Amino acid sequence: MAKETFADRLKYAMEKQGKKQVDLIRMAAEQGVKLGKSQVSQYVSGKTIPRADIFRFLGEMLEVDADWLAGRSPAREPDASGEKNDALERNVPEQKNDSTVGGENMQGLREFKKSTKLDNVLYDVRGPVVDEAARMEEAGMQILKLNIGNPAPFGFRTPDEVIYDMRQQLTECEGYSTANGLFSARKAIMQYAQLKGIPNVSIEDIYTGNGVSELINLCMSALLNDGDEILIPSPDYPLWTACATLAGGKAVHYICDEQAEWYPDIEDMKRKITDRTKAIVIINPNNPTGALYPREILQQIVDIAREHQLILFSDEIYDRLVMDGEEHVSIASLAPDLFCVTFSGLSKSHMIAGFRIGWMILSGNKQIARDYMEGLKMLSNMRLCSNVPAQSIVQTALGGHQSVKGYLVPGGRIYDQREFIYKALTDIPGISAVKPKAAFYLFPKIDVKKFNITDDEKFALDLLRDKRILLIHGGGFNWKQPDHFRVVYLPRVEVLKEAAASIADFFSYYHQ
Ligand SMILES: Cc1ncc(COP(=O)(O)O)c(C=O)c1O
Hints:
Blueprint lengths: L5 H12 L3 H10 L6 H9 L6 H11 L3 H4 L17 H4 L37 H11 L5 E2 L14 H10 L13 H13 L10 E4 L1 H13 L5 E6 L4 H8 L3 E8 L5 E2 L1 H6 L5 E7 L11 H14 L2 E5 L23 E7 L12 E7 L5 H13 L5 H4 L2 H5 L14 H14 L4 E2 L8 E2 L2 E2 L1 H4 L4 H12 L1 E2 L1 E2 L11 E4 L4 H17 L3
Parallel strand pairs: 1-13, 3-4, 3-6, 6-7, 7-8
Antiparallel strand pairs: 2-9, 4-5, 8-9, 10-12, 11-15, 14-15
Bound molecules: pyridoxal-5'-phosphate (PLP).
Pyridoxal-5'-phosphate (PLP) binds next to helix 10.
C-alpha cells in the first residue's frame, strides 16, 4: 500500500493492528482523549490531519512512531511480519514527506516541516530513547548514561598542559584562521601522519574540523551525487550513514562478523560493490564493537579498493586508545597508489570532546582526486574555519608525553573498566560478547530467543524505564538484527558494578 499521505499511513497502521475507526474512538474515550467519529473519518479520508497530541495518541495506539505517522521521520512502521523494519531497511529511501501533511494545521496556520532530505536520516545515538531519558531526568529521575562516548563527565580530565597552553594562546585566537587550519596544528598533524607511515601528505592536504563529525559531513557532501553508493560497515558509527544519506548517496552496509572478532566480512564487501560504488568507509578501531583490524584484513580491503578503483575513508579517532600491546595500523599507509582520507582528532585520546577539534589527512594518489579535493576545499572555505582555540593546542597534544597511555594498561582506568564490564556482562545468562581491544565500547549480543526480543529499541526503552540506565540498541548503529546493544564503559568500576548488577537483574525477568 502506498504510504505517501497521512491518511495512507494511518490506514496502513490500522490494518496492521487490526483496528477499525470505532476501535480508535473507543480507545480515545477510555483514555479521556477527545476524538469524535467525524474527526476519525476525516483523517481516514484524507480531508484533515490531527493536532500534535492526537498524532501522539494515534502513534501509541497503533504502535507506530507519531513522527512517522505525521510524515516527519523515516519508517518506524510495522512491517509485514508485524515487526519493526530493520535498521538497514530504514535506510532504504521509501518515505516521502507529503506536502499536504503538516502543510496546514487545524487552525489553518501554515506549518513548517523539516526538509525531505532528512527523511531517511537516522541518528539514534541522540534519538528517541535518549529523548525519553531526557524526559525522565526532567521529571527528577537520575539516569546512568552509558550511551555516548563523552569522557569528561566520567572524570577523564584534559591533560593540564593542554589547558595551560590553550589559556596562554587564547587572546591570539580571536580571529578566523585559514580555512584548513592553523599552520602549527597542521604541521603537527603532518608529522603525526609521517609517524604512521601515511604517504604523500603535504601541509595543504590537512584540514582541521570542528570534530571529525564536521569533516565526515563535508567529505560526504563533496563526493556523493544522488544514488552514488558508498560501502559503510554494519554496525557503524551512525553519523557515516546519516551523512552519506543526507548527501543524497546510498549507504550500502557490509557486515562486520562477530564470529571473526568483528572484522569486516571481505566477501560481503565484495558482493556489495556495484558500478555506482565510489568508496569504502572503515572505522578502525571500531565504534561500536571495539575491534582493532590487523594488517592482513586492511590489506584485503586495500586490494578490493584497488581492484574497483574506490576511495578509502578511514575513521581512526580511537587510534591512540589501543590495549593489550597491540599496534594500530593506518590503512592509508598500505595504499600509496589509492586516494585515502584518514580522520582523527583529540575528542577521545585527549578527553576534550567539547573543545571540538578533529582533522582529516588526504594521502596517496591525489592526482585522481583533484576535482574532489577542489570540492573539499570549497566546502571547507564555506565554513570559514574550525574552532581556533582548539586548533591552538593540537601541537601540544600530539607531541611529548601521552597521558592517555596510562589508562590503557593494567591498573589504568580504561583497561580495568573493560576487564570488569566484559566479565560482568558475559556472566549474565543469555549475554555474550567479543572482548574489545580498543576504544571504550562493548557491543554485547543478546540471546533473543531466551528473552523473546523482537524489537531492540523497545528493549532499550524498557531497560531505561525499569533500571534508569541509558544505552543504545544495536539498530542505532545500523545493525540489522534486534540482538545487540552498546555499552560505553567510561564510568568508574564502582559505577559499572551497580550498572552491571541492575542489567543482570533486568535480564533475570525480562521477556518481550
Ligand atoms: C567512530 C567515530 N567517529 C567520529 C566521532 C566524532 O568525533 P568528534 O568528536 O571528533 O566529532 C565519534 C564520536 O563518538 C566516533 O565514535
